[in-house]
Amino acid sequence: MTQTGYVGASSSITAEDVPAFYEGAKFYSPAGGDANRSSVISWLAGLLDRNGPVPLLKVEGVPPETPCVSVCVLGSGSAMADLPPAGDEFVLAVQQIERLQRVRFGAVYPLAAATISALVAVVTAAQLRVPLLDADGMGRTFALIHHTAMHLSGVSPTPLAAVGPTGESVLVEVPAGPRADRMLRANVDTVGGWAALAAYPTTAGVLRRAALPGTVSRITNVGRLLLDRTDPDLLVTRLGAITGCRRLARGRIAELEHLSRPSDVTIPAHPSSVVVDEIGGLGRQLRIELRSEIVAVFADGALIAGAPDLMCLLDVSRGALATLDSLEPGDVIDVLVTPADAIWYSPRGMEMVGMGSHGIPLAHPRQR
Amino acid sequence: MPAQAHIGVTLRPHRAYAAVVTGTTVDVVEPVAPARADLEGVISAAAAIALRAPGGAGAVTVDLAPLLYDTLVRPEAEVPPVAVVRIVPRPATDPALGRSPAELVERRIAHRWTVAGGHDLLGNELCPLDHAGLATVCSELAASGIRHVAVVGAGSQARPAHEREVADAILAAVPGARISVAHDYGGQGLVAREATVVIDCALTALTERLLDRCERTLARLPGSLELRVARGDGGYSTPSRIRVTPVVAFGATEALELCGAAHLARLDDCRVLLPRGGRRLAGEVRHGLAVVRPDEPAGIGTELVVPMAVLTAGPEESSLYLQPEQPPHVLACVGAAISQPASWLDEVAFIESADQLEHVRRDAEERATAMVMANGAAPGTTHVAEISTVALPYSPSGTVRVRVRVAGSPDTSLARR
């Protein structure tokens, strides 16, 4: 197989890229905490040192008949931090599908090119010694495994395999994608709160039309900016130049609230809210609605951003991203919003991952 | 009523420094080098000043952190070898996942064992404890001659049963072993929790020696000076507590410097720039307490679960920051002298209703309050300085992380005499 890199973007991921890749992946999903940051970086950098850089290929650069499979971490980053991987979970999950389908995958891609899920895709590619595709299914993270561009394009997530840190595994085949997530969640809790997932086995040809392109190569550049730990104003300006993000407001966290909206137990993490008093500007009171991600931001009661927008928080004092499990009253934060991939603003995309899916049936600001 | 004088001491690798704080007055102790630049000489010189204060002399709060850090980073430093017993469902298949990412931590580890067992974040058992494997570990450990043992189990902060069972078995096999168990510290992340107990074990002997010296020095002095030890979060604890949890004293200096700078500027809330090796690092003080987090301390290479000051690269625009004129060691001494007893709790809980959330918060506050009183706070003086409960992303609905920080006023009845 010809392995084609491309000009103007990274054509491989090396051990030296890993710290920036970690930070950049956090920008596209601020959900996970940093409790096992150094261990994950050490694991991936060690693998890349031993096995060499992982080639990062455009989907178009891979022969269309190449079998490909996506991987991600299913479940909680906090659970994964306290029960770290033994190291073979992702490869075992991929190999289960290989045995079932009697194929050998020629490339791996992240189900979600964000947070720890972006890193484990590199881990898996390095362990299997196959290239990583510069594409994913979400362009960020969403709550459920069928919240993907592949699902919208009619690609089934199954057969899928989930392997837990206990070494136990589950193989799922369902006729309808949304059933798979419900079947998996209970098993994930049983094996320790997280599992290595291999799903969406398909071909590169299908991914050319079904996956979101360029979502892996951009991560390292974003991460390099974040590692600079520069002045927050300058950082936001620089991030805006390469991601299209903008600052909605700067403010101090006044309150953290829980169970602040009706709960839908099919989606992980209960609804909670962060109340922020804007510093300067219009002196507004912001209300940030959370599930596992930020789902909406209101200013003095008016909706100013909402899913599927990518919203994240920058800890102004530290000049670093604030993860949702580390927020504290008194922290000064910048609320940043970045447009998601266009596919998520389509009627089907909005129905699946828009604010309505989180119990906030309001028109999206970009549609008014 | 005239103010009592309090002494702050910071122990640096090559000399000790002290300052006496009486209300808003600060007297920097200038020992006569070299004979009086050591711990005993500096404390004695500071006590001589403090005992002349109209309100009398109160306490001596010692910052051990620079010496602890120096000992940890010097490969040739005499530190007892530490054994690690990790309790997880199965051992790591990749060497990087079976060790600490921090070389500084790993080089203190003489041997590692894994015993099958462990729980999830909410305390559900994932794997029964492997008693046969534990028996083998105990017999190998007894034969190894290692007497300092760090034990960390997955989910032990929620259910410490496996850690306790392992610790009991080790103690039976190796009488007199110094065992540090991770559930004593709570926090998030097995690797961070493991590094915390390894450092705890490694620093035990040095901490004991330093506190012995401090206590002998105070015993020779007139008055009723009470010994306190600065914590990483900028508060203080009693010597007896620090002897069994020395890692709590690790990394105290930065928080003390921040609080010292704020005190000298007579500010309760401020951002402070501290000089560090030609650079400036920024930290923050809120309501008189340094902003702290469990994080990756500079130069360690891994996260720890004991909170320390959050320091970041200084900004280009520094007009909004306090830039103290006093040298860092003076700030640390002042910060130590004015420190309050403190406690910190960081754990995961499960709620299904607002009532349960309130119960979880109240329970955490009560336990943190009991801890701060054990650390030297007077009854009735404690207050919740910070509390946050956040939903854990991608966890089952109802899973929350609870963090509580409690501070109090010193219990003066703890004075030596």
Automatic annotation (TrEMBL), chain A:
Gene3D superfamilies, A to Z: CV3147-like domain (3.40.1610.10)
InterPro entries listed in its UniProt record: S-Me-THD-like_C (IPR048350), S-Me-THD_N (IPR010318), S-Me-THD_N_sf (IPR027479)
Alphabetically ordered keywords of this record: Membrane, Transmembrane, Transmembrane helix
Membrane-spanning parts: 107-128
Domain S-Me-THD N-terminal, residue spans: 16-173
Keyword Nucleotidyltransferase: no
Record domain S-Me-THD-like C-terminal: where: 179-360
Annotated SUPFAM superfamilies: CV3147-like (SSF160991)
Protein name: DUF917 domain-containing protein
Annotated source species: Paractinoplanes bogorensis
Automatic annotation (TrEMBL), chain B:
Species annotation: Paractinoplanes bogorensis
Pfam families on file: Hydant_A_N
Official protein name in the record: Hydantoinase/oxoprolinase N-terminal domain-containing protein
Sequence ranges assigned to domain Hydantoinase/oxoprolinase N-terminal in this UniProt record: 112-171
Source taxon at top rank: Bacteria
